[in-house]
Amino acid sequence: MKRVILIMITLLLMMTIVGCTQNDLEDYKSAMNKTENMERGKVEVDIKSTTKYNTEELDDETLAILDKFDEFSFTTIGRFDRQKKRTINESYVILGDLGYDFNIYGLDDKHYLELLFVNINDKKFIELSENEVVIEEDIPEDVFEEFAKKWNNILMEDNVTKGEKVLITTDDGEVKSREFTIDLKDEQLKELLSYFIDLIKDNEDFEKFFEDMVHYSNEEELTNDQKREIYDEIISNINKMFLDANEINLYYKAYIDIDGYVVKEDIRFNLRNKETKSGELESINFEMTNKYTNIEKEQELDFETPTQQNTIKFEDINWEEVKW
Predict the structure, then answer these.
(1) Would 229 be classed as within a structural domain?
(2) Structural domain contains residue 60
(3) DSSP class of residue 314?
(4) Residue 323: inside a domain, yes or no?
(5) pTM here?
(6) How many domains does the chain divide into?
(7) Which of 91, 97, 52, 88 is nearest to 70 (CA)?
(8) Rounded CA gap, 61 and 67, in Å?
(9) Residue 301 belongs to a domain
(10) DSSP class of residue 315?
């Protein structure tokens, strides 16, 4: 199921990247580019996801597993200064009944993880390798370009609006901004999703992209045929899940301030299936809010300096000995 959700999130992010008519798209891309390249600032991300299944006739063990993972939330507050090469990300994740606090610090070209309330060999920091911090894989260009063409054709039906000027409340106070909105309903989304499935189901580059993203977590090395079988099954399940849904909608809104920065993004995705069998998915509710504040202002970036004495490398951890 995690692999299915990963492709869904990839698709949602693709929608937000290309989701405007031509003139609006240029304004939006310019604002996002300016925001992503700011030298210093504060970024807050808040994600909430609820997944429900048909639980009729399921045994107690299965019900207990579903109950643990039906709700997910993630919050992070990040501050950064590119010139000083310092970042702080304070995060909290809730999965079912369990919650975890953790911080990630960036110092020069290295990143360190601090797991609060967890004792790892009496060390405070875990030094992360680059591939544990940055996902380098890009969505295959041919898939992205073809999807963008179809997406923009659908959005010509007045589903994207360049809204009036509004005031929103941020950490910086009341901010004057312009709205960019996407609001797609069932029929349009199913048409788009069906097109997306056709694009990726036989695309070797996307299959490789997906494989690199999930790092197939099997103890034994999988053959190419086994990987292909897993990929085909996931694509088939996604296709069925979306096209059989009774209700599906996507809402996206970006707020751009008078200086040309994106200061807030709201994303909502909902899927409901009224006719399900035991164990099948009934609904997904996904919400994500991004806030960009303190843009190009001095940041508080003080933290204890990681040293050889208080730091362990990720690959050196014996997780069986970790005291939770």
Answers:
(1) yes
(2) yes
(3) G
(4) no
(5) 0.79
(6) 1
(7) 52
(8) 10
(9) no
(10) G
